[in-house]
Structures are given as structure tokens and as C-alpha cells.
Design a protein that fits this description.
single chain; 153 residues; alpha+beta; S-adenosylmethionine decarboxylase; 3-stranded antiparallel β-sheet; 4 helices
């Protein structure tokens, strides 16, 4: 058990996808986080109307966000049916990074037709900061024991 956050969901329309991308970009700018769009429409000036999914050049598209150098990137990668499934580990980053990832997931949750999150620390489900701290401490204790050559019981 660590502090990995698993998430998945599907969007109902390309309009919801565009709202999601906008929401994540605004969030990234608010928190000064680097991000990168990928698989986007090859017409950045918008001179060609949006093409149906059958004509997309890239089978996936989305946004890559780096919450911290010590965490996994947060990748929202959608297939042609606007479905996504991924995870983000924050165990080596400051606890505030875990809270930041949860904050972003809560912000985008209403845009999904269906959305589920499993947070190993249970912060998503319970909002209990003390429990999050306790679970993170257990992870660090386990790493320390492994580095010291002790077996975990």
C-alpha cells in the first residue's frame, strides 16, 4: 500500500473533453505547473471545424501535467471513445502534492459521465488528512526497513 491514486472515467462528448482540457490548463496555470497537450487537433488556429473521431490523426489525446518532480505525472489520456484510465503516485513528493492531485480530480469530476477514483491513502474517499499522513508514514517506514535490510512483517 502506498499513496497512489487510480482514476478512470468517460466523457459524454467532445465538448466535455474541451471543457476538461480548459479546466486542467487553468488549474495548471493557477498552481504554476508545467503541462503539455498531446494528440491535439492539427489545426491550432481553428480554421477547420472539429473532425469526427473517425478522422483523428492520433488515436489518443489529452494532457500531461507534472504536479512535482518527485511525483508521477498526472496524465489524462483519452481514447477515441473519450475513455481514460490511469494512476498517479505521490509517495515521494510532499503531502501537498497528493492534496493538489485530489483537488484537480475533484474539479474535473463533474465533467465526466462516469468517474471513479481509488486513493490508496483513502483521502479521496474520506477527506481525512490525519489518515493520509499516517498512510504516508507507513510507506516511509517500510522503505526505511527495506533500506536497512530488515524484513517487513
Amino acid at each position: 500500500m502506498g499513496t497512489t491514486i487510480y482514476f478512470e472515467g468517460g466523457l459524454a462528448s467532445i465538448e466535455q473533453y474541451e471543457k476538461l482540457i480548459h479546466t486542467v490548463m487553468v488549474f495548471a496555470e493557477e498552481h504554476n505547473l508545467p503541462f503539455l497537450l498531446f494528440g491535439v487537433n492539427p489545426d491550432p488556429l481553428g480554421t477547420v471545424p472539429f473532425q469526427p473521431k473517425e478522422s483523428w490523426l492520433c488515436p489518443i489525446q489529452g494532457i500531461f501535467l507534472q504536479p512535482d518532480v518527485h511525483s508521477d505525472p498526472l496524465v489524462l489520456e483519452f481514447d477515441a471513445d473519450l475513455k481514460m484510465k490511469n494512476r498517479c503516485s505521490t509517495q515521494f513528493a510532499n503531502i501537498t502534492v497528493h492534496l493538489l492531485v485530489i483537488e484537480l480530480l475533484r474539479r474535473i469530476q463533474p465533467l465526466f459521465e462516469n468517474f471513479s477514483v481509488v486513493d490508496e491513502s483513502e483521502y479521496w474517499e474520506k477527506g481525512d488528512l490525519q489518515l493520509l499522513q499516517k498512510k504516508r508514514a507507513a510507506v516511509y517506514c517500510g522503505h526505511a526497513q527495506i533500506q536497512a535490510g530488515n524484513r517487513l512483517n
